[in-house]
Amino acid sequence: MQSEQSQVIIKRFIITWLCLEKEPERDIFQVAWLENLVNDYKVSSLWLLTGNGAFFSDDWNFSTVKSFVKSECKKTRKRKKDCKQGNTNV
């Protein structure tokens, strides 16, 4: 049984896939999205491609991924703010 978080991601993927099947000229699916799921959100590539194994990569779960992404977003916002203020010492 999939977790609630994995069901949300699966649902979004299926909706996108169905839209793409109906209107292939829209070209809305991008392979890079799979790479982002694996690299940024620690979704298991094995699970993503086959549906087998754990949803998240080893030693990761929804809470650790959420915390990691939140921390990275804060760093990015700070860097953008520093750049806008002309602070080059970052």
- The overall average pLDDT, rounded, is 77
Q: What distance lies between the first and last C-alpha atoms, to the nearest angstrom?
A: 45 Å
Which ranges are low-confidence, i.e. pLDDT below 50, for 5 or more consecutive residues?
A: none
How many DSSP E strands?
0
Helix count equals 4
Radius of gyration: 17 Å
Notes on the protein architecture:
The chain is mostly helical and 90 residues long. The chain is flat. Helices cover 63% and strands 0% of the residues. It has four helices and no strands.
Give a concise summary.
63% of the residues lie in helices and 0% in strands.
Present the secondary structure layout.
Layout: H1 4-22, H2 31-39, H3 45-50, H4 62-84
Question: Notable features of this structure?
Answer:
4 helices, single chain, about 90 residues
